[in-house]
Amino acid sequence: MINRQRLTDEFVTLVGIDSLSKNERKMADYLLQKVKDMGFEPYEDDAGQKIDGNAGNVICRIKGNKERPALLLMAHMDTVVPGLNKKAIIDGDIIKSDGTTILGSDDASGIAVILETITSLKEDNAEHGDIYIAFTVCEEGGLFGAKNLDLTKIPADFAVILDEGGPIGTAAVKAPYYNRFKVTFKGKASHAGIEPEKGISAIMMAARAIAGMPHFGRIDEESTSNIGIIQGGHARNIVCDTCTIEGEVRSTDPGKIERLTSEILDHFRKVAEEMGGSTETEVETEYPGFRIDEDAPIIQLLRKASEMSGIPLNLVSTGGGSDTNIINDAGIPAVNTSVGMEKVHSTEEYVRISDMEKACHFLTAIIRAACSYNH
Length: 375
What we know:
This protein is of the alpha+beta class. It is 33% helix and 28% strand.
């Protein structure tokens, strides 16, 4: 049976552990010991070494009925800034930070829900198939823990990632492809007071290019773009010769994201050339998107869990990326389900205890549904 107080205490403990991206050592050590104390045999992989972090992914197999589908349950250990010295304040059903930091429910709530659900299953001696747990590093930094997860050691049939907001029962079944780009505008330096006419301002190039971008913000229901960083100039009295911008394009349509990215970058190049300058461009696909058909087996599994738990299923499309993108791309059908987090990545972040408790019931139902599912 799900224990509300135990779940609350666990979440508060997790919040109190500093765990910024690539600095998850304290969290990994805590979880390795925690899962071991639960009677299992967790291990840490070498993802930390590969990404120049101080901890790897924490992984554990919970043995079950091999005749039933195996599930992978995932949540990430890292948090964004300001995430040091977090303090959880309990106010009735709500847990929030003290207002000086984030709370870290993204994704401490996912970790807490997994731990409580597994503890409850063990106490109840409930039947289940093989369950794999993976607590990943550096999700916020670019899904690097999931990208370096050796899935050959995790033969799961389905995956449930607990890293979504919204009402409990929400499952993200569509997420965008993500391209990031870096464009350096190159002009010509000159003295801004003595001979400005001999210079070509890279800052003005970038400004004109951004102002005339063919696609920006909400492009359509499937696509967005943004410029998030601008850097340039050395002194007020120098016509700037280089200016760098960094941005992104997202779309759930793989063909559309390539077209949009190409059109934006072509526009930047043309503006620079018209002003007598040039551009250098770097583009990288940060992660692939995914879309799961509503008749897919994993959706059938969620529908059954919804019926068993009485929690309405809410299938949604998200504009953000998560470990779910990586797991789907690796060939394991995966969904991202809600753990109730609200206003994440802000000092106003909070989560309801009742939502985390409900998330435990929904996850329990998913595990039970999988146990009765026929391959």
